[in-house]
Task: inverse folding
């Protein structure tokens, strides 16, 4: 039973290699995350400056 679960785990983990995201899509996603993070940080900094 444990051997079967282990085999299933390996088969589930294997598809990650060929299923890679395109570099352009990955870059746009990272840029979007960075932009949202920067916007959140800017808003927090502005609020902090406004209250102090």
Result:
């Amino acid at each position: 039973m444990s051997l079967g679960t282990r085999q299933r785990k390996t088969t589930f983990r294997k598809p990650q290699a060929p299923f890679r995201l395109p570099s352009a899509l990955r870059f746009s996603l990272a840029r979007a995350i960075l932009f949202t993070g920067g916007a959140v940080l800017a808003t927090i900094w502005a609020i902090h400056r406004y209250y102090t």
